[in-house]
Every structure is written in C-alpha cells, then in structure tokens.
Design goal:
The complex is a heterodimer of chains A (446) and B (324). In chain A, 45% of the residues lie in helices and 12% in strands. Chain A is α/β, with parallel strands linked by helices. In chain A, the strands form three sheets. Chain A has a five-stranded mixed beta sheet with strand order 8-7-11-9-10, with helices on one face. In chain A, strands 3-2-1-4 form a four-stranded parallel beta sheet, with helices on both faces. In chain A, a hairpin with a 2-residue loop joins strand 5 and strand 6. In chain A, helix 2 crosses helix 9 and helix 5 crosses helix 6. The longest helix of chain A has 18 residues. Chain A starts with 17 loop residues before the first helix and ends with a helix. Chain B has 324 residues and is an alpha+beta fold. Chain B folds into three domains: 99 residues, Roll (Ubiquitin-like (UB roll)); 91 residues, Alpha-Beta Plaits, CATH 3.30.70.20; 98 residues, no CATH class. Chain B is built from seven helices and 16 strands. In chain B, helix 2 crosses helix 3. Chain B is globular and about 60 Å long. The chains are: A alpha/beta (446), B alpha+beta (324). The interface between A and B is medium-sized, with 30 and 35 residues.
Chain lengths: 446, 324
C-alpha cells in the first residue's frame, strides 16, 4: 500500500476533534516551526520540497511564497482557497470534512512563514456543513492556545476566520476570490499587479489551495528534502485524486506522484477497473477544464511510454495528445457515454459560471453552449464543428482570467479526439435526438 | 522616462504609462481602439479586449515576447518594449474576433438608434468586423427600461464596458445602478427604475460607447449628423458650464460635454469637463447660453468620414469589373 501523508489518519474515529487529532501526532509542525524555526526557514523547507500548487495550475508553492512583497507596516494575508467547484473534483471537501485540524495546522505554519497575522479560509457557499466543521475546529484550536495571541508562548499572533462565498466557480480564481472576500462582485482583477503585491484590501496576499496548505505540515515535520524524495522529477510528494465516473470503486485516493495511470484505474488498491465490465472510452484526468483523452492515450503517451500520475507525464504530448493533472478530478467514461453530450454539459457549466466581465468569455462561452446544444440534439450541421473550433481559438488566451481557456480546452480536445462522434450527430439527426451515441453504438455492434 | 516602440515608431513616455496612452501620444493609426477604457475614469479598462496588442519584446532587460496578447489599456510600458498593433496579423484576427463576440447579441438596430453616427461599436465593426454573421441562435434580449427620468437604458445594445458604473461611483452622490447576473445574462440595471436622480448622472450617457444609455430629452428627435454642434458656455455653479449645443436652426436639440477624438470629455480649467444634469437636460433655450461658435468635431465616425460612400464606390467598381 502506498505511503500516505495527509490521509494517514482519516479513518480514525473522532479525528475531527482536537484531542484525537493531537494524539495522532497533530500540531507537531506548529510546535517545531514556531519554537525552533524562523519564518524564512519554513519557506526554505517548502522551496526544497518542490511542492506545487494543488489547486490546478501546479505553480511551485515555494516560489509563490518568495514573491510576496514585504513592505514595512503593511499587513500580509494568507488566504486558503476552499472554493472547490471544478466539476469532478471533490478532494478538498473530503479533506476538510475529515481533517479540519490538519488544515488549521497547515495554515498556522504557513501564516507564520509568510508573516500573516490574519488568515482566511474562503469556502464555497455549497459547503455550509463544512463551514460548521471548520468553525468548531477553529474554536477548539483557540481554546487550546494554537490560535489567537502569543501562540504557544512564541510571541506570534494569528487569527483565523472562515468566509463563505456565494457558490460561484469564478471565485476560485484568486483575484475574484479576493474581490468576493472584500464584499464585492466576484470579478477577476486585471493582472499585474499580482496578489503577492496588491491583494486583499491592497495588501500583499498569498492564496493557496486546501491540499497545498495541508502538505506544508509533513514538509515541516519531516523536512523538505524528505518530501521531495517521494515522486518523480518536478512532481514531488503525494497528490489527492478524486476519482469519479464509471469506476468500480470511485472515491478520494492519496497516491505518490509517479503511480502509473493504468495501475490507478485497474489496480486492486485503487479504482479496480471500469464498472460493469465495460471498456474504457475516455478519461478527463484533472477536472473538467483539462483536455479529454481517448482510451488509447490514457495509459500510454503518444510516444508509447507508460503514462504516470505526474504533472509532466499527463501533459506529455501537449494539447495534441496530452492533458493536465489539474486539480485531480479524475473522470472515467465507459463505452456507453456520449462525448458530445458530455462536452455540451461542460460547456453549459462554463457558460453559466462565466462572470460576464470580458467580451470573449461572456459571449463565447454562451455561443459554444448553444452550438453544442444544437449538435447534441440533432439540429447541427458540419459547419458547426468548424465554428466551434473557431470560437475556441478566439476565446483562448484573450480573456482576463483562465476561465476562458478552461472553457475552450475541453471542447477543442473533444473535437480533436472524437470528431467522428460529432459528425455522427450531424448525419443521424433523428437518432441523436432520441438515443445516446455510446449506447447506440454498442447495440449496433452487439 | 522610458522608450517604447509601437508599430516601428519610437516614443519616450513617462514611467508607468499604459501602452494605449503611449500610442495616443503618437496618435493616428497606431492607436488601438478602446471600448471600455476611459482615461478620465480611474479603474476602467481591461474588459472589452478590443485594445489587445502584441508585445514582441517585453523590455530592454528581458526582451522575450509576451506569450499572449495583452490589454494595452492596462499594461504599463517597459523601457525598450516593442509593441505591434496595426503591424500584427494576430492582433488583426483577434480584434475581428472580439467584434464578432460583441455583435452576436447586439441588435444591430443602428437605423433606429440615437447613437448611430457617433457610435464606437459602429466604427469598430466597420474597421474590424466581418461581412456577415455566423450566429444562428436567438439573441438574448431585455426590455428597455428607464433609469431615472432622463435616461433610457437599452440593455440589448450594451457591451458591458462598466463605464457608466464608474461614472456613478466617481461622479454622483451614490450609485443606484450596477451589474446584475453573470455570463451572457449579465446586465446593467437598477432595482428601482426611477432611482437614478442626481446632479451628474447624465454623464453616463456621454461615456456610453454605444446606444445603450440615451438622453430621453433627445431620443428620436434627429440623427446626429443633421445637427450643428456649437460650442457654448453658461454660468453654472455645479459644473464648468462649458458644453456643446447640438442645434437645428435656432433650436437646441441636445447638450453634451465637449469630447475629444477618443470620445472622452475634454479637460476644462484643468479638470475633466463633466457637465451637470441641469446644463444637459434643462437648458434648451438658446437665450440661456453664451454661444461661442461652431465646434470642430473630430470626424472619427464612419459616417462623417464618408467611408460608406467610398466603400460603396469600391464595391460598385468591383461589380463593374466583374470581380468577386
């Protein structure tokens, strides 16, 4: 069984309470960091660990921390991005439900490293029951002296608050998150200036994902070098994957970077293969925003190498034959699924969640959704497929924030790998109105 | 001071100047169009994406090109930066794309729109737009509403530049309208229709690049190109009183602020020459004004430049020559 760093004790009953958590080695990193290390030393350990942001973009956390501006007399903020709303991703939800104290511990250590005295957990509006769990845990931590004034007699003060959002996907974008936290409409800001220079209330701010902040705990406990030993190359440590779709055993898994995709899908310790004995058709390895991979590119790269669960291996082949690790929302499609319908579903999500601030995304996502809707319901024509590709190219890279790209990539990849399916919807208008492409194909063959 | 090259023309500008403002200092063809940026309203810009330009070299120190097109209105220049606007094929295609996006839900009702002839979207699509539309879907529509008793809002025509929101934030006592909803359902609106009523709200009409916000005292009275713009002034305690009267014979049809060639209000006495609602809506009697003389307006509009007749002559020639 693979090594676990975050989910080591997730099945212990009562782990969400302070006592049980402490008994299983909790809060060691706070004692170590606040008493024996300087903030700079903590940052250095994180840099050594090679930890990369777990929210989706995979930006090195140590580097992000080192960009934080430190002007005199200006407060700095650490924000935890718990606005997990990428379709297919549910790892942060599990982490926060089970291990609220691990998040608090990670945030204390990280806030200490960054010199923040007030930190926020920005949680999505749909996770209200987790808000209660977190607040209860925070109250416990205050009572035990791990939060508040003069933590453990170290002279370091930290206040931690939970702020719920209104349930908007766009508020997971860090500058939109900051706007929302300030009480404004969640529109992403123009960059530069980056949050590291001008973030929350104009002060230097770091925004990190839940899993990233939790990973800081084992890094401080065992040292960055020890953490960097796990994994391959620039993909270090463990990663939580929320596997969903047509799998025998979907769920949240913690794996060491470098596990092969084949092992992850079919292995007995992991997802145990495709449900109901069906065949694999396609896979979205990192949440709805990343390009979809057809079956022959899931376990092997285009060059014939084994595909691994790492940032690099999943991206191998670029957009032509690769995808991205993203946020770890691993979605499996079996042979019965219709890719056009799924692409339409994703497009509908992005059209709904676009903030409407910049023209290409506001108009383009809505347009794509309408064209895909038509195609899926047998009202499309071949020109529409070219049109979709065109709209895609025109959104990509021209928007304020990455939502435009995230909306464009899955559509582009679906057309690239499953063009014949789109064409079938055009040539079989009536059937595509009443029947699912995947199921139909099977019945034709069978 | 930093040196920047835009479309092969070098200019020295102050540190922190945006690419767009550097281009405006050069003037002419190199200036990217701007639908949402308004130099007199801090905080505007970055939204419409029509001013995207290519940065071929980031700076003297780091001469790498920027991977994406950047919004020239909100990107500061660096020493040694090389920018391509008119000379970049990529900029040209993407600007066309933005025009297409802006027009898919736009009603294209120019024949009945009061803004026609001085509409920035009209100019933009004439210069960068395609010939037809590829949008087969139904356009999203809204009912026109009153925001205040002097301003009509046609949300269908709006391109969501947010300029009017900034006007309300920065010029009026309090903002009572704003942006509702998200995505393509985003709209400028107000919960209480009559609520917009304060001294400087009329400037929303002047900053609107399209015909979304129109002057109710002028609606459907005349096409703008039939009117004679006259510079005028009056004693006003609220504003500078320096305006343009749009007249037909001796009748004043409408009053606007004095605008420059980018459609922005000119500075009067050292500050932006916004005008108050009294001057704009109430003083339609010529005896209340000291009329200075004809206003030379910058003929940026496609109609005033005679581009339509030129284009018509061109296509006429093509037909005669049997070209396709």
């Amino acid at each position: 069984m693979a090594r676990k760093l975050l989910l080591e004790h997730d099945s212990v009953p009562g782990i969400e309470t302070f006592e049980v958590y402490k008994k299983h080695g909790g809060y060691r990193s706070v004692e170590k960091a606040l008493k024996k290390m300087s903030p700079q030393e903590v940052v250095e350990e994180v840099q050594k660990s090679g930890l990369r942001g777990r929210g989706g973009a995979g930006f090195p956390t140590g580097m992000k921390w080192s960009f934080l501006a430190k002007p005199e007399g200006v407060p700095r903020y650490l924000l935890c991005n718990a606005d997990e709303s990428e379709p297919g991703t549910f790892k942060d939800r599990y982490l926060m439900e089970k291990l609220p104290h691990l998040l608090i511990e990670g945030m204390i250590v990280s806030s200490y490293a960054l010199g923040a005295n007030l930190s926020y957990i920005y949680i999505r509006g749909e996770y209200m029951w987790i808000l209660d769990i977190l607040e209860k845990a925070i109250d416990e931590a205050y009572a035990k002296g791990y939060l508040g004034k003069n933590i453990l007699g170290s002279g370091y003060d930290l206040d931690l608050r939970v702020a719920p959002g209104g349930g908007a996907y766009i508020c997971g974008e860090e500058t939109a998150l900051i706007e929302s936290l300030e009480g404004k409409r969640g529109n992403p800001r123009m960059k530069p200036p980056f949050p590291a220079v001008k973030g929350l209330w104009g002060c230097p701010t770091v925004v990190n994902n839940v899993e990233t902040l939790m990973a800081v705990v084992p890094i401080v406990n065992d040292g960055g070098d020890e953490y960097a030993k796990i994994g391959i190359g620039k993909s270090t440590g463990t990663k939580l994957i929320s596997a969903g779709g047509n799998l025998v055993r979907p769920g949240v898994y913690e794996l060491e970077m470098g596990l092969s995709v084949e092992e992850f899908i079919y292995g007995d310790d992991w997802c145990r293969g495709i449900a109901n004995g069906k065949k694999l058709k396609a896979c979205v390895p990192g949440g709805s925003s990343v390009p979809i991979l057809p079956a022959h590119l899931v376990t092997k790269t285009a060059a014939g190498e084994t595909r691994l669960m790492t940032y690099e291996s999943l991206a191998d082949g670029g957009f032509a034959s690769g995808s991205m690790l993203g946020s770890g929302g691993f979605i499996i499609f079996d042979e019965d699924q219709c890719i056009v319908r799924n692409t339409w579903n994703f497009a509908r999500f992005y059209a709904h969640e676009s903030c409407g601030q910049c023209s290409p995304c506001r108009e383009g996502t809505g347009w794509m959704e309408k064209v895909l809707n038509r195609l899926e319901h047998g009202q499309g024509n071949l020109r529409d497929i070219e049109l979709l590709e065109e709209i895609n190219k025109k959104i990509e890279g021209n928007t304020i924030c990455p939502l435009g790209d995230a909306a464009a990539w899955p559509v582009a990849a679906a057309i690239r790998h499953f063009r014949e399916e789109f064409e079938w919807h055009v040539s079989h208008r009536e059937e595509s109105q009443t029947r699912n492409y995947g199921l139909l194909k099977e019945s034709l063959v069978g | 001071m930093v040196k920047v090259t835009i479309d092969d023309i070098q200019i020295e500008v102050e540190d922190g100047t945006s690419i767009l403002n550097a281009a405006r200092q050069i003037g002419g063809e190199v200036v990217p169009p701007a639908m949402c940026y308004y130099s007199k309203l801090p905080g505007t810009g970055g939204k419409c994406r029509t001013c995207l330009v290519e940065v071929a070299a980031g700076s003297e120190k780091d001469p790498r090109p920027m991977p994406k097109l950047v919004a020239s209105c909100s990107t500061p220049v660096q020493d040694g930066m090389i920018v391509k606007n008119k000379t970049s094929e990529k900029v040209h295609t993407n600007r066309g794309a933005v025009v297409e996006f802006l027009l898919i839900n736009h009603p294209l009702d120019c024949p009945v729109c009061d803004q026609a002839g001085e509409c920035h979207l009209q100019d933009l699509s004439f210069e960068n737009g395609g010939e037809g539309t590829r949008y087969e879907e139904e356009k999203r529509t809204f009912d026109p509403i009153d925001i205040g008793n002097k301003i009509k809002l046609h949300m269908n025509r709006c391109i969501l530049c947010y300029r009017c929101v900034h006007v309300a934030n920065q010029l009026t006592d309090k903002r009572v309208h704003g942006v509702l909803n998200r995505g393509e359902h985003t709209e400028i609106s107000t919960y209480i229709e009559a609520a917009v009523d304060n001294d400087f709200s009329g400037n929303m009409i002047d900053v609107c690049p399209v015909g979304a916000l129109t002057d109710k005292t002028f609606r459907f009275k005349s096409r703008v190109w039939f009117l004679k713009p006259m510079e005028a002034s009056c004693e006003c305690t609220k504003c500078s009183g320096k305006t343009v009267l749009w007249m037909f014979g001796n009748e004043i049809y409408r009053v606007t602020a004095r605008k420059d060639k980018y459609g922005e209000v000119e500075d009067q006495d050292g500050k932006a020459g916004w005008i108050c609602n009294d001057c704009r809506f109430e003083k339609k009697d010529p005896s209340k004004w000291n009329i200075i003389g004809p206003r030379t307006i910058n003929r940026h509009s496609v109609i005033s430049q005679g581009k339509y007749s030129a284009a018509r002559a061109n296509s006429q020639k093509k037909i005669e020559n049997g070209d396709k």
